[in-house]
Structures are given as structure tokens and as C-alpha cells.
Amino acid sequence: MADIPVSDVRPDMPSEQRAATPSVTAVVVAHDPGAWFEEALDSIVTQDYPRLDVVVVDGTADGGLAERVRAVAPDATLIDASDTVGFAAAANTVLETDVESAFLLVCHDDVALASDAVSVLVTEALRSNAGAAGPKLVEWEHPEVLQHVGFVVDQFAAAAEMIEPAERDQEQYDRVRDVFAVPTACVLVRTGLFAAIGGFDPGITRRGEDVDFCWRAQLAGARVLVVPDARVRHRSDLVGRTGVDDIRRTRARHQLRTVLVTGGRVRLLGTLPLLMLLSLAEIIVAAFTARFGQVRDIVSAWTWNLSRLEEVRRRRAGLRPKITVSPGEIRAGQESGSVRINAFVRGQIGRRDRAFGEELITVMRTGTTQFSVLTWALVLGLIVFGSRSLIGGGVPAVGDFVAFPESSGNLIDTWWSSWRDRDLGSVGSTPTGFGLLGILAAVLGGSLGLVRTLWVLGPVLFGLIGAWRILSVTGSRRAQIATLVAYAALPLPWAAIAGASWTTLGVFATAPWVLRALLEAQACAPFRSAAGPTRGLVSASVAAGVAVGLAGIFDPVVAIVTVLVAAGLMAGALVAINPTGVVRLAAALVGAALVGALLTLPVSIELLRSGLPWHPFTDGRTGDASTEPLTDLLRFAIGPDSAALFTWAFVVPMTVPLLVGRAWRFELAVRLWFVALVAWGIALAAVHGALPFGVPEPGVLVAPAAVAVAALCGLCVSAIEYDLRRDGFGWRQVLLPVVIGAAVIAALPGISGIADGRWGLGRGGYENVLPLADPALDGSYRVLWIGHPDHLPAQGSPFVADMAWVATIDGLPDITERTIPAHRGAYEQVELVLDAILEGDTSRAGRLLGGLGVRYLVAVERLAPAPFSDIDDARPLPVALVETLDTQLDLRRLAGVNSALRIYENTEWTPVRAAAVSTFDEGRTSLFDLQVAPITGTIGVLVGDGSRLEGTIPDGVELFVAQTTNGGWRLEIAGVEAAQRRSLDWATTFVPSSRGGEAVLAYTTPRWKQLVVIVQLLALLGTVGLAVRRLIGGRR
Amino acid sequence: MMPALRALGLIIIGGLVTIGVIADQRERTIEELPLPVIVTASDSRTGTWFCAGGSGAVGAATIGLEVVNAGLDDATVDVQVVQADTADEQRAEVVVPAASRVAVNLPQLAPEATWLGAIVESDNPDVVVEQTFDGLSGTDRAPCATTTGTVLFAADGATRLLAEGESMTLLLMNPYQDDAIANVRFDADVGPDSISAIVVPARRIVAIDITDEVTVAARIHTSVEVTSGRLVGNRLQVRNGTSVRGLAVTPLLQDGAVLSVVPVVATELGLFDRIHVTNPSEEAAEVDLEIVTDGSVTLDPIELTIRAGRTVVVDVAAESRLAAFSQFSVVARSLTGQPVAVAVERRVELGGDLVTGTAAMGALDAVASEWIVASDGNVAELSVVNPLPDSIATVEIWRVGVEGETLLSSIDLAAGRRQTLVAPDFDARDILRVRATSPVVVGRSSAGFTSRQMLAGVIADGAVLLDQLG
Questions:
Q1: Domain boundary at A204, A238, A272, which?
Q2: In a domain, A891, yes or no
Q3: Is the CB of residue B202 less than 8 Å away from at least one CB of chain A?
Q4: In the prediction, which pLDDT does A121 show?
Q5: Residues A957 and A1019 in one domain
């Protein structure tokens, strides 16, 4: 701290020595000040300090200030800073003048200084060699009440007071102390220091410039002191003056900015993730307490700063040469932990936050709210604890939990392109959800692993929030708690994680929201909308559509939940002899379908254009019978090792509202029962093979039953609250202890699942056990996967009972290939070959598959490789299929591979992009001609990802591309486009018009499709905006 | 109102749950892929022929192929030579004109090979591939297999090399891309023996000289258990003694059958036919050998009890009640349900009026409505058997020529009857198609100047596994 000039001058020196007294320029930054301004200005003019100039910076310049200044301080200099925004930029204008004083006394326009304040500050600054010194601030109207005596600041630039709210001044803080920051309401700063570090950060309009300035001052080697003997009254009513309450928003933004500007690179690696976690926690707490404005402010703090990264970079570069103190020393002066958390607990976070804290404390004093918060904390705590291995170690790539691409850029690129590589290639959009995940990962600095974990665990959280909301209209917080706990205790989501079924998780997340929306659509008690029947119907339709749409952008199969819930509610309404709302429900379904279709563009358009095919909703199932017994369906035991014996205990609370419920509670119970019965019934029909079409896995089908069961548990509490207490003592009263006992028993399966920290999901995927060749060596190839639909690495096409297939490029697929597109390209070629194999019609499956670019045929018999899966959960290939595969002349079974797999290598494969002589397909008009006349003598060419491939094509060859013919693909060799012709009746051969050379094979996504995606994004943004507005409006 | 509504709701919900529980008790029809029905008899429709092989240019049984086109369009076949010594694959594309035969000199494709076989592929279901063998002790012929198996049998064999000039070689061919492993077990009159874990490399042939393994045996029954992969095989039996001389190459029987048919058995003077029945299971088998004649008389079956893993030999000539029938067929029926392997071996000793030599064939496990027969030899006989108990088959025999098909003969076969057609009803080198209104079994036997042959026809259409017929 030696580079700040020091003078040893005291104010009480004789007048002849006052010439040596350092000069001070008081910089009063005025923004349309009120009547107090004259008093404030006068307090400066009348200071006992001999060498004090006054500069008034007029931040508004409406013309009236000059007169007011002249009236009080005729010698004061007036600076027009009307072109600046905010206090910091206005104060910095003093640097543009020829200020020569040793100190600057920067003041707001609403401070009144004690007459000796400047003298005391200067004296102490000189004595302590301080760079900046702040006075003791007290309330304007109540000078006996302390306002500020300096800030403590943590590593996240969050500042907190050192005093308690409304603490009286009893001279208890009257000691000169080093502090991390002092308010800019009144601060004495060495002019050299102020100029050296560029004054205040002009990007910080208001709030936070004090911490930022003091932090940078300390990095430059200056001390920051609070000098309590200097006493200043301060009005501090910025909100009242501006009429804008943006304390939380500006503070959050500017704190993050300060961290980004001042933090050392290494230290930022630790600070930023922690800050993200804190933000996330604050978002969660705010969301659960319905403070969506707070959520918005926290999120906007990040977006605001991310949009100003270049500015941040410049400021960091400007600060770097001034740094003389290591960040570690600065950190030592900061508070450990988070002062925001500490301050929140102490009720010290700003006016608005303080109100929130107080309000929270008030509501916490009520028993049910306390219980709610505790329940949520317990549930979330158990989920986090039960998921600790997944959170810490990541989610293995098994089943639906497909791996993400290597980078967020790949994820976004693939989403933006409408070419899908899966199977034999086709035009079809990757669900937009994955594009959004890619964007999120990019925002998070490319942290795809974190995003993937959120993608898996997030649906559980959304489902639980939805469950919490179902019975919120009943006014019974206990009913909400019971619903929440029941939904969390059911084995369904945990079995879905164990079985790596994202579709089930998606339905688990969506079902409560859809149920609530459709109940509102029915407009039966207690779900009647205050907005009127028509607006209520529209609102409910939109809500249901949004719920399905938001899940549908990840997996369209989720849409099935709407039909199941609606069917159950309709049946329930009829049985309850209260068919009210059945027609409205049908109308809501239509509305929800329209909204859902809008949000799931362009997939919905592709479905319509393809004639609404059913296969995207079957998840590779044929509709044949399977082995799950009804008891498993009733207990939601749908995953591996899902014993869940105690789940039977849910029958007790489910039955209570039927037995004791009155009025709407009984009717609602009937409706919910029928939602469950319809879901179970369809699942039962499916596992018995009684449906004439394939339907998704049982977990998806019974998910609506799960939410109905949970809601019935909540209704049970409601019935006990409202109906049981009205009865005299009798058998009904016995229900209470029985219900409590049953609830405890029913919760056991959920609790027991937390032991391994991963809900039974295996620890590893197939990525390390597949002995697949490097496509860079011999060319790109396909892998044909055959297995049970639950075990395949992507949604499959039905093959035979309990078996499906999917083809992928160059090994395991990534998430962009998970869902099956509406238009499947030339997929039937694969099915023809598989049929031929199955029927024993060929002994040359290799040649046939080789024509499709298939190098490996992988039969997946378990969800995860050994030892991460139990052999009892294996679904082996049918013996008949094994027999025929084993007797193919050109398939070689790879030995020594993991026992969960059978892998055959095709000895007669052809690369997906193969350079071949011009006669290579002569006389071969269909794929099956290859049985006796295989394609030979090809070499793999062109490499790349997705829809752009590059490489060199030799002279005199053609390029056989083993993928579905599509006019969107173009081959250019040295800038010259090659002609195309159809090969083998399904693929494309490019015929170069000239010699070989550097070639680019690329797919051009149609413009209209990209426009549709933009429309979808706008619709999603609008939806989110509407939802936030509605929730905030509802709060108000 | 409320109690009634409550009761109604409870009843309906309870009722639906009950219905669900009851419905779940119904047995589900779990759709399972039926196991493929594998007819081990050669079937031209598969288009893939496994010729298990013989010796190279210098050897006891030099192999050749005869590709027969029983269709009216030219056919192209792809011949891939499989050798014992190297995995190098020699290929040849052979065009076979309509209604004709083309001989393929395999040793010419791989002159250095000591043992070699072939995989022949065709997309023409009218093509039949047979392997021919030529050695110092005689010639023989056998259809190539169209299936591979995991349990293979050679019903008979002998290794009295010094005393009788008998030598036996087992050829195992692995046509697939994965190595196969097999255990070979011998049940010989000199005692049991076995060879464990023989590796048959992918696309290779392994020749096992049984003469060295089981020495001085007058009777050897060989079974091959393939523990990994699938194989085809040939048994090469050379007899070069003072009483009998001949070469008999028999494809190894695959898997055995509960019900099978030996179409050709004879008791003519000078012919010594012996039926071998092997029970590879681990329990004793009760087997009836039902005698199928031309209809003049019905005979009781020959009843056999065969111990586990053993072979019973029925010397036909020793059955005096059969002496009246110069020819008949045998339906082998395993009453206890275990698959058994049945084969017949014929021996004509030197010094008689008949052409000397040996021949053998395995029983067929299938009936079919259409067969292709590439007849051969100076004296050829075609045997048609209707083994079904309740159907009359009208059988037509057509000659395939370049000008088309010509009907040679039409006969009616009652249930459980057989009939033999003898050249000159047809020419000794005719390509014949046998079509029947009800599935039948077709076999043939022939005698050349120096050797004899017994072999089955090749299924062309309408194959039904006899086991499925019961």
C-alpha cells in the first residue's frame, strides 16, 4: 500500500500551515434531488475543513439544479452529467475535469455531514494511510439510529451490514476499523487512487458500485476504513425517489459483475460454480415459495452478465496492471461462507428481502407451512441423498439415458439439422428439448454432464412440484403434503431410473400437471376457475397443452398421458353420476392437443405429414403379450428389482375418501380412482396382448395411476380434515391410526431405495465393452441393435414380440438419435433382411446387411453390461433367432465380449460412404441381389459428424452412400456438384462429373423447417413468459 | 343420496378391480418365435450347399462336385473351396445350363489341398449339388448337406487296416466365420474311445484319421458333439480287403430324429444290408423299425431296445421273415421319444454275380411333395415311400430336359407303402423330378461297373418334418 502519497497534515494546524493541508474536492452527485438537497449541500459548504472545493454533478440536468446550487454554494462548480446513466458514471465525470485536490469526497445528494466530518475523515485517512474512508452513516430523520458502519463482503461480492436492523447508535462501533467496503453515500477517496482504478464501474448504474470500487481499490493496494467519528446523516430512499424497486435485480447483477471483473482466473474456477449452486438453491427456494420475481432476477443476473462478457473482459484487462495485492490476500479480508445466507437468516438483506425474510419467518410460525417446508426439505434431501452417486458420478449411458454428444455445439448442430442418421437415415427433426439442453450446456460453460444429470433427475422434481399443486385449490396444506409424499414414495420414478426409462420419468413429470389442468377443465368442485367457465377452459387447455408440450419436446410418447388421464376422468365423472365437464374435457383435449402440437413443432408437423403414424408412440413394442403380472402393475413395480411389497399399503389411504369423503371429496375420489383404473386397465390389456397395436412400456401406462394414487392420498387427508371430524366416534375414527400406519409402511420402498445413491441404476454403460472398430480406419459403418425395447440404446422399431431393432452410425447413438422419427426413411430394408434371417431364407445376412452399411449386429440382452446388471433381468434373443444368426456364412460372432451382449461382425460389410468402381452395382437392382453378387472392392471415404462430411475421393470412382435417398444431400468435388442416381432401390450413388479430389458431402436443411423451429422457440418463450406472468400475477 | 352413491361407487370400483384380477388369471399367449424346423435332408430351396469334402487330387477319395440344374433356366453358382490346410478361399463361378449337370473339379481349384470341401451358393432353387468321390477302391456319390448340425453321427465304420484293408476317416467342415469345437466319441467293438476339444477353425476342414485313433475295429459308431458352432461332416470308409472292396462316403447324420425313413433296404442274394440305430440320449430308447413293403404283405416291426449312447445293428439278411422281400423300406420310430440316428450300409462281397462294393445312406427325417433326383450308374433304382398312415399319394416322375419336362411315370401309393422304379423306366443319367400329391420320401440306389451307391433324393418343395407328423 505504499504507492498512495501520504501527508502528515492535521486540521488543527495554524492557518499559516493550512496551505500544507491536503485539498479536498467534494463531489456531490445529484439526481433530481428533493427538498433536502439544500440542507445536504449546506452541510458540505459549512465544513470546518479549510481547503474544500465543491463540485456538483448534475445527473439529470433539468435546469433547476444550478439555481439551487448557487443559492447555497455559489462557489461550487456544476458539471452537466445528463448523458450518463447512474451514480457511478456521473461521479466519474469528475475525472474529466482538472481536479487537482488530493482527496475526493464523493457524496450522494441526500447526505448531511456533521461539520467536522471531512476533517475527521481526512485526518484518519492520512494517519492510517487509507485509500478510502467512509463515515458512520445514520438515519436522516432519526440520527440516533445507525445506518451503515461499513460492509462485510464475501467472495461472491455480496455485502452485508455489520449492524443489526434499526440498531441504535450507542457509540458501540466508534472505533476506526478496516472494512471491506464502505457505502458511496459519502466516501473520502484519494484522487490518485480514484483515477488509477478508473473511478467507479460505469456499468453499475446503482447498487453495488461501492463493493466493486472498494474491492478494486484493495487490489490496487489501498486500505478501506470506516471512521465512525465522522458522522453523516443519510436519507437512503432510492426506491422512493426512482419509483422502481429493482434492488434485488440490480444487486444480483452487479455482484456477479464484480466477481467476474475482480476475481482471479484460478479463483473464479472455484467461485463461479459455487455461485451457480447458490443461485440454483435460491431459485429453488424462491420457486417453492412462489417468488417467481426472485427467480427471474437471479436468472437475469446471469444472462445480463453473459451478454456483457466483452465489457467484463475489457475491465479485467484494465484492472490487471493495477493489481498489487494477490487475490488470496483480498480473500483473507472477506467473510467466509456466504454473507447473503447469514444476512438472510438475520433479516438483513435489503428492504424487500428483509420483508421476504420476515414474511417467511411469519408464515413459518404457522404449523402447516413449517411442516410443508420441512416436508419439502426432507423429500428433496432424500432425493439428493438417494441420487448422490448419479449427481457425483454421472448417469451411465444405458437404456433411455443415452449419452450426450461430445460438445454442446454438436448437440445444437444436430438439432438444427433435420437429417437423422439413425436407422438408414431419414428427414426428421431432433426433438427441440435436446437443442435447448445444448444451449443450456453452452450457457453453463459446456457442462454436458451436469445438464444430462438434470435431464434425468429434473423430471422427478417437476413431477413432485406438479403433485404439490394438484390439491392446492382445496386449501389444505396437509393434503398437498400427503400428495407430495405419496408421489415421492411410490416406486415408479425410482424404478424408472433403475430401468433407465426416461419416457416413464417424462410421464411422471407431466401427469400431475395434466391431471390438475384437466380437473380444472372439468370445472368440478373444487377446481372451478374464478375467471369464468370459458376462460377457465381455455386456461386449462393451455395448461395441459403446455405440460405435454414441454415434456413432448424431449419425447413425444409422453403425450399419451393426456389421453389416459382424460379417459379416466370421463369414466369417473360418469360413475359419479356427475357428467359435468365431460364435454368440456373433450374440448380441453382438443385445445391441449393444439397447444402441445404448437410447442412440439416441427415434430408435430412431421407426424401430420406422415399421416399420424403410431410407431413413434409405441417405443418399439409390437402389442404382443408380456409377462408382467397385474400385481406388479398395481404396485408400480416396473423396473429391475422392484419388489415394492409395501406399496400395497397405499390401498388404505386410497380407500378412505371413498369411505368417508363427502361432497366434492367423494366425487373427486371417484374420478381419481377411475384415472387409476383406466391406466391400470390399459396396462393390463397391453401386457395380455389384448390391444391390437403396440403401446409404450407399462411404466408409461401406469404413471397416470401413480398420480391418481398420490392425489387420493392427499384427498384422504382432506377427507379426514373435513369429513371425519364431523362424525361422532365410530368406526371411521379408527381409520386415522390405520391411515398413519399405512402411510409409514407405504413410504418404506421409496426410502429403502436411497441406499446405493443411484436408485439401483447400473454403474456403467456399454461404451467400454463394445469391441467396435474405429470408423476412422476403414470407414463409417452402422451398428444394428436388436433387443428388448427397454434395453436398446434408442427407441426401436418393432421386430418380433418383445424385440425391437435400431440402427446407429459408428457405435452407440447419442441423445439426438434416441427418439424415432415420424418418417423412417428406408427402414423397411432392414426389416426385410431381418425377416429373411428369421425365416431362414438367407445364409448371407452379412451381404444383405453389408449393403445397408451394417458392420456389426449387436444383440443387447440386458440393460447394462455385466457386472452392472443382473442376469435375472436378461431378455435373451429368441433361440430361433440365435440359431439363424449363428448359421449365417458371413457373420462372425465376436468372442470374449461381455455376457450381456452377442455381437456379430459382418465379414462382408460395405462402408456407409464407400468409394466404388462404377460397375459396383451393375445388375443389382435390389438389396437382395447382393446375396449372390455382393458389393466388393470398396473403401470408406469422407468423415465428419452429422450432415457435413469431408474427405478425398479418388479418381474414377463413384460414391455409394448407404443411406436413404434424399435430395437434400449434395456432393461437391472441388466445387463441382456430382450427379446422383439411385442404387439398390433405396440408396444413393453420386457420380462425379470430373476427377476425384477434395469432396464435401452435405445436407441442407430446408429453410421452412428452420423457420418452424424458430416459431416453436418463440412459442416456448411465450409460454414461459405467460407462465411466469401468470404465476406472479396470481401471487399478487 | 350420498350413501347410495357411495355404495355404487364402491361396488363399481371394487367390481372393476375384481374383474382385473380375474382377467389377469387368464393364461397369456406369450408370442414366442417358433424354433426353426430344420430338415436335415438336403433341400434345394436353401440355395446353400455344404459339401463336407474328401481328399485332394492324391487321396483315397478324391472329391469332385456335380452341380445339377433341374430347372429350365441357366443357373450360376458360386463355389468356394474350403480346405484343411489353409484358410485361403478359392472361388469359382460356375454357369450351369438348364436341365444339365456340370462337374466341378475341386482339386483343380486348390491343387495343394490334402483335404477339401466346398460351400456352394445359388439363388436358383432348382440347383442340386452333389459330391462325387473317386478312389482306388471305388467311387461314391452323396448329396451335399444344406444344413449344419451340433450332433453328428457316423453309424458304421471299420479300421481293420492290415487284415481287411479297412480305413476310416472323418471329415468335419466348419463353413462359418467362428471356430467350432467338437468332442468325438467312438463306440467300437474294441471298446469305447473319444477325442476331446477338436477345434475346427472357421472356414476350414479337419480330417480325423479314425484308423489311427481306434485301431483294428470291425465296427465303430461315431458320434460328434459340437460344443461351439455348427458343423457338417463326411465319413470316408475304404474297404480294400479280400472279401469286400469299395468306397463309401456318407454325410454324417445330423441330430437324429424320432421318426425317420430309410427308403432303400434290400435282401437280395449277395446284398448284405445292415441297419444301424444309434441312441445318443442318456436314457434307453425303444425303437420300432417298421417294414414298409410294396403292399403285398404287412409285417410286424423289428423291436429294438437301445441303451443310452449305444448303437444296435440289425442284420437284415439275418431276419428270415424278410427274405421274401427283395426290397423294402424302413420307418424308424422312437417310441420313447428320443431322437435316434438311423443309417443303412450295404455290402456286396467279391466273388458273386453282383457288382461288388459298399454303399451307405442315412435315414431321412422329412417327407416332401417334390424331389429332385440326379440318377447315376448303370443300374439305377428309384424308391418312393409313402410313410404316412392315412394318405394316398399319386406320384409322378418327370424327366427334365432342355426341351422341358416329360412325364415318365405316374403311380399311386397307398398309405404305408413303397414302390421301386428301375431303369430303363428312366435313363441312368436322367435328371428327374418326383412330384406327389401327398408328401413322400425318395431314395435311390445304383450300381456302376465297380461300385455301388445309395443316396437320398433332394427335396425341392413341400418338406414336412416327419417328427411333426408323429
A1: A238
A2: no
A3: yes
A4: 93
A5: no
Residue B120 in this model has a pLDDT that exceeds 90? yes
Q: Does the CB of B148 have a partner CB in chain A at under 8 Å?
A: yes
Question: How many angstroms from the chain centroid is the CA of residue A539?
Answer: 25
A300 in the same domain as A234: no
A769 part of a folded domain: no
> How confident is the model at residue A459, as a pLDDT?
95
pLDDT at B132 over 90: yes
User: Which candidate in A622, A630, A841 is best for mutational testing of the B interface (most B CBs within 10 A)?
Assistant: A630
Verify that A332 and A233 share a domain, yes or no: no
- Measure in Å the smallest separation between the Cα of A780 and chain B Cα atoms: 22
Q: Could you read off the pLDDT of A812-838 as tens digits, one per residue?
A: 999 989 999 999 999 999 999 999 998
Distances (CA, A) of A213 to A178, A236, A262, A933: 15, 19, 10, 79
Q: Please report the number of interchain residue pairs, chain A to chain B, with beta-carbon separation below 8 angstroms.
A: 121
> Is residue A403 helix, strand or coil?
strand
Would you call B32 an interface residue with chain A, using a CB distance cutoff of 8 Å? yes
Same domain, A361 and A373: no
State pLDDT tens for residues A582-598: 888 899 999 999 999 99
| Selection from A910, A1003, A1004, A926 nearest residue A958 by Cα | A910
User: pTM for the full model?
Assistant: 0.72
Look at residue A345 and tell me whether its pLDDT is greater than 60.
no
ipTM of the complex model: 0.83
Residues A304 and B65: their CA atoms lie apart, in Å, by 82
**Where does the pLDDT of residue B196 fall: very low under 50, low under 70, confident under 90, or very high at 90 and above?**
very high
Say yes or no: A460 and A596 in one domain. Answer: yes
Taking each helix axis from N to C terminus, what angle separates B2-25 and A560-575, rounded to the nearest 10 degrees?
Answer: 130
Residue B117 contacts A where some CB pair is shorter than 8 Å:
no
Are both A509 and A467 inside the same structural domain? yes
In chain A, what residues touch B17 (CB-CB under 8 Å)?
A: 677
On whether both A182 and A279 belong to a single domain, the answer is no
Do the chains contact at A801 and B32, CB–CB below 8 Å?
yes
Q: Which of B250, B223, B254 lies closest to B40, judged by CA? A: B254
3-state secondary structure of B40: coil
pLDDT digits (tens, 9 = 90+) for A645-678: 788 888 889 998 988 888 888 889 999 999 999 9
Q: Whose grid coordinates read 409402511?
A: A745
Cα(A199)–Cα(A377) distance, integer angstroms: 45
Q: H helices of A888-993, where?
A: none
8 Å CB contact of A881 and B119: no
- Kindly list the residues from chain B whose CB atom is less than 8 angstroms away from the CB atom of residue A888: 176
Backbone angles phi, psi at A960, to 5 degrees: -90, 120
* Set of chain B residues whose Cβ sits within 8 Å of the Cβ of A924: none
The reply to whether A341 and A389 lie within a common domain is no
**Is some CB atom of chain A closer than 8 A to the CB atom of B3?**
no
- Between the alpha carbon of residue B194 and those of residues A175, A835, B186, the distances in Å are 103, 41, 6
Residue written as cell 458360386? Answer: B78
Among A662, A802, A890, the residue with its CB nearest the CB of B177 is A890
Question: Whole domain around residue A934: which residue ranges?
Answer: 913-1006
A33: domain CATH number? 3.90.550.10
Which one of B10, B31, B36 has the shortest CB-CB distance to A689?
Answer: B31
- Which three cell numbers, joined as nine digits, stand for A518? 384437466
Residue A1030 has pLDDT above 70, yes or no: no
Rg value, chain B, Cα: 25
Look at residues A735, A752, A769 and tell me which one is the last residue of a structural domain: A752
DSSP letters for A650-719: GHHHHHHHHHH--HHHHHHHHHHHHHHHHHHHHHHHHHTT-SSS----HHHHHHHHHHHHHHHHHHHHHH
pLDDT of residue A138: 93
Please give the helix or strand (H or E) that residue B17 lies within, else none: helix B2-25
Residues of A with Cβ-Cβ distance to B146 under 8 angstroms: none
